[in-house]
Amino acid sequence: MADYDYDLFVIGAGSGGVRAARLTALDGKKVAVAEEYRVGGTCVIRGCVPKKFMVMASEVSHALEIAEGYGWSFDNVKFDWPTFLEAKDVEIARLSGIYAANLGKAGVELVHGRAVLKDAHTVEIVGKDRTITAEKILIATGGRPWKPDEMPGIEHAITSEEAFHLPELPKRILIAGGGYIAVEFAGIFAGLGVETTLIYRGPNILRGFDDDVRAHLAGEIEKRGIKVILGCQHEKIEKTDTGLVNHLENGMKLETDVVMFATGRIPHVKDLGLENAGVELNEAGAIKVDPHSRTTADNIWAIGDVTDRMNLTPVAIREAVAFHQTVYRDNPQHFDYEAVATAVFSQPPVGVVGLSEAEARRSCSNGVDVYVTRFRPMKYAFTGSDERVLMKLVVDADSQRVVGVHIVGPDSPEMIQLAAIAVKAGLTKAQWDATCAVHPTMAEELVTLKEKQSGATSAG
Question: Beta partners for 11?
């Protein structure tokens, strides 16, 4: 066997790469991980975690409105952006430090720098005059925001990564996009008092989600003061003395202080040297892998967003565990992507697991039963708010298995985690119905839905 510097070299210290490195090192293997930025990756540094802090900060304004309905009064309420940024950055630094410390405790060497493949067993640390060899290599470099670089004026726009570090809170913002990141940041900025416009080229936001969820959320976020423009996109951005003028395809011109593009993310494969190692990309530009995350190079694997399979942090972690079991424990595993719950931290938030109604109609041969309820949350009883919750169960008409759960409303991310257990276990509608309700809660509606949506059962 060739003599290598390391048994495993990991490129990328995000959630997936860190988990794979730690597990392998704890098995007694010699492991190193290279990170060109900060340990923690997208989720901890420039994604889920700081975004959730921003969501929580922005939700306070809505909570104050509700509180007034319950008799509370407030004087001189204000939000200070620099104070929030400082607190957020301190916490992110703490979390990044924990990730780095855990690597050290497991015996993993942390290499600060950008790693580039020179061949299937060799990486170079750019600018460090260091070349490293490894028996096996794992690529876990994640994704990066995409924006249309050819569009005139695009240099004036930011992405989600810059949104975490704006020197001051804008008075007006336009967000281009209709996915998770776009609707989440629209809620954040609107909640912080920013005049917010969301523009999306498609017919409705959250493409790929259940149509009832998409329509319901679009209406609800407008109630929070967000202006939504659908079926339209930018032609150009023009910088003027007073702001940024957004020239739209429909002829509209909107001036804002900040323009943010949240139009998708792409695998971070640029300048990795993949061609030097025989690692191929698929048609979408992601690293091509088999079900066990092995690339087209026998000794190189890839996990997480760089493979563009299911771009969620917990999925990357589970892919890392499967990689370790397969490669170092002689226990071949691959992650099961069916019935993975997900949440959108919009305002109100969304929780989803399983199939949309349209997907279920295509896959359930004898049709589906659909149960839907819309109601005002008890919390809003004293406020005069007309905000509504949506809950929807999609049931295979033949087996009566609940194959999809869709919730839009307060605490839906918390509810969907537990609902996912039932969906993953294949429980039937009768078993859901046999579960006693917890009263008074919103979640009790999930086990008390009795009336099928009119005309719901039909073959796909």
Answer: 34, 139
Beta bridge partners of 111: 34
Taking the C-alpha atoms of residue 375 and residue 253, their distance in angstroms, rounded to an integer, is 37
Q: State how far the Cα of 347 lies from the Cα of 329, in Å rounded to an integer.
A: 43
The pLDDT of residue 389 is above 60: yes
What residue type is assigned to position 315 of the chain?
V
DSSP track, 426-459: T-BHHHHHTSPPPSS-SGGGGGT--SPPTT----
- Kindly state the average pLDDT of the residues 57-63: 96
Whole-model pTM: value is 0.94
* 384-389 CB contacts, 8 Å cutoff, 24+ apart: 384/69, 385/65, 385/66, 385/223, 386/223, 387/220, 387/223, 387/348, 388/216, 388/220, 389/348, 389/442, 389/445
Q: Are 141 and 281 in contact (CB under 8 A)?
A: no
What amino acid positions are annotated as catalytic residues? 439
Residue 384 — pLDDT band, cuts 50, 70, 90?
confident
The model's pLDDT over 9-19, given as tens digits with 9 standing for 90+, comes to 999 999 999 99
Give SS3 for 124: strand
Distances (CA, A) of 237 to 111, 157, 231, 244, 370: 40, 8, 18, 6, 44
Q: Is 72 exposed, middle or buried (0-12, 13-18, 19+ CB in 10 A)?
A: exposed
Could you give phi then psi for residue 445, rounded to 5 degrees? -60, -25
- The single residue listed with the structure tokens 């924990």 is 98
Average pLDDT over every residue of 385-403: 96
Closest alpha carbon to 436 in 448, 421, 426: 448
Tokens of 247: 């020239």
Closest to 398 (Cα-Cα) out of 426, 373, 372, 436: 426
CA distances from 374 to 211, 346, 390, 409 (A): 15, 18, 5, 10
Which residue stretches of 284-408 are H helix?
Answer: 313-328, 357-363
Distance in angstroms (rounded) separating the CA atoms of residues 261 and 174 = 8
Alpha carbon 302 to its chain's center: 19
Buried b (16+ CB within 10 A) or exposed e, 102-117: ebeebebbbbeebbbb
Separation of alpha carbons 333 and 304, rounded Å: 16
Give residues with Cβ within 8 angstroms of 146, minimum separation 6. Answer: 263, 264, 265, 266
Tokens of 78: 């204000």
Whose structure tokens read 């009336």?
451
